[in-house]
Each structure stands twice: as C-alpha cells, then as structure tokens.
C-alpha cells in the first residue's frame, strides 16, 4: 500500500491510532479542550508546509505559500457567504483556484533561475494582501466575517458529515476534519514522490541540464508541481477561514510564508513527512519559548541556527541517518 513496508505500516497504524483515539482520550481526561484548536492549527499548517516542501523537491525555494493560503480562505468565504455554496464544495474550489493562480504566476517566472523565483515568491503574500484590501468583493480591510459553519452532507438520506452548526462543541469535528485532510495530503505527497513524476522531479533536483537532455520538459513539470503546492496552500487556508468563521487581509502574512519554509527545514527536506514534524516542533517550541519573554526571539534564532548547522537534513535525520527514508 503506497509502497510502505510492513514496519512502516505498523508505524502508520500507531500514528493513526494516536491521532483519532489517543489524543481525544487524553484531552477528555485532562479537560484541555483548547488543545483541539492547537492541534487542528498544526494539522492545517502542516498541509500548507507540504506544498512548500514539494517546491523544494524540484529545487525551488517557495516563500509565498501564505499568499495561496489567503487566496484559498477568501475564495471559500466568498463562495459560502455570497454565492451560497456548501463549504465542502468550496474547499476543493479554493484549492483549484489557488492552483490556477499559481499556473498564471508560474508560466513566466518558473523559467527563470531559482534565485529569481524565490525573490518573486517573497513578495506574493504582500501582493495578495494588498489585492484583498483593494477589491470590493473581499470587503477591503473589513474582511469577510460571520462565515457559517460547515453544513451536513448526506447521500441517499444517509448522513456522511454532521452539521457543524448543530453541534454544541465543534472543536472535535474540526480536529478530525483537519487530521483527515492532513493524512490524505501526505499520502498523496508520498505517492507522488514515489511515482514517475516524482522520479522526474528528483532528476531535476540533481541536474536540470542532464534531465532536459534526456527529454524531460523542465518548465512543464515545474508549473505542475507549483500548482499542486499552491493547491495544498489553498485548502489549508480555506479550512482556517471556516474555523475562524472570518478572513481578513492580515489573516496570512509574510511571516507565515517564512514559517512554512522553516517547517520544511526543521523537519527535513529529504523526508516526505519532514514538514509535518517540523510544524509540530516549531509550533509548540515557539509557545514554550514564550516563557522567556524578551529573550524568546534570541533563543529561537540560536536553536534554528544550531539545527541547520548540526542537522542540515532536519530532525528526521536523527532517526533515519544520511540515507533518509522517503
């Protein structure tokens, strides 16, 4: 299944049990219901970070994922609030729209050298923020608020998804939804990396000139990968908007785009599941360092520099060594 070994399947089973059974049991015993929101945020940030990792996989630095998360959040909000769509239909639509925007952006700039692509993506989040401030459909600085909670979904009278609006506490429902999306995202990412397209991406990462000489359409693959990357950002942003029931031009900023990239570095660029671990560690690590007050940023920077210096392949290299395990 997905090319997993027996040992890996056992690990996946333990991971799934921990997410869907272990965590709810622990939260139920401790009464820390706020952890549902925290872990939901980690899952959604991990989805967006997966897209950034994918662009790293073709040798490109993407510092603009916050832009596509913001696009996804606005598209979903507009479709739900102003067009009356179900959230569950707006979710893939938000991802597809973000991917289409990525294609339009990628067509001219993905033919440039990597450093120029990185510089352009750096300003994308601010460009989308200014666009959201200027367009009437986004309500400018007021943003879009009072977004209704996801409605229920039934098939032939059989309820498949409950109506979130009818629940007394939606934290658990959003937690499960975010975790399912994260698992599907990383399963798709793992499958892509181990497919023919993934092998072509790997050859591009090693030597683009050599890959081009054997007939690989470099520009085409770059655009496809960038579109998939942005799709992940779009659905992550759409889910954030639904949880917050609002979206504003400042919902995602340049700092978020940088953090998506740092999640990949911290977890390990050589590992598919690196962004997931990096997101978890960075999110909770930042909260723990909050106790240091004014020294928080200093200690945070020192730790990141130390990790990059002594663990250039990320935290997962401690487990898998230099060879890695995709």
From TrEMBL:
GO terms under cellular component: plasma membrane
Lineage: superkingdom: Bacteria
Keywords from the UniProt entry: Cell membrane, Membrane, Transmembrane, Transmembrane helix
MF annotations from Gene Ontology: branched-chain amino acid transmembrane transporter activity
Protein localization: Cell membrane
Ranges annotated as spanning the membrane: 9-29, 35-56, 63-81, 87-107, 114-137, 173-193, 223-248, 260-286, 298-318
Topology in membrane: Multi-pass membrane protein
Xref: PANTHER family: HIGH-AFFINITY BRANCHED-CHAIN AMINO ACID TRANSPORT SYSTEM PERMEASE, HIGH-AFFINITY BRANCHED-CHAIN AMINO ACID TRANSPORT SYSTEM PERMEASE PROTEIN LIVM
Name of the protein this chain belongs to: Amino acid/amide ABC transporter membrane protein 2, HAAT family
Naturally occurring in which organism (per UniProt): Roseovarius marisflavi
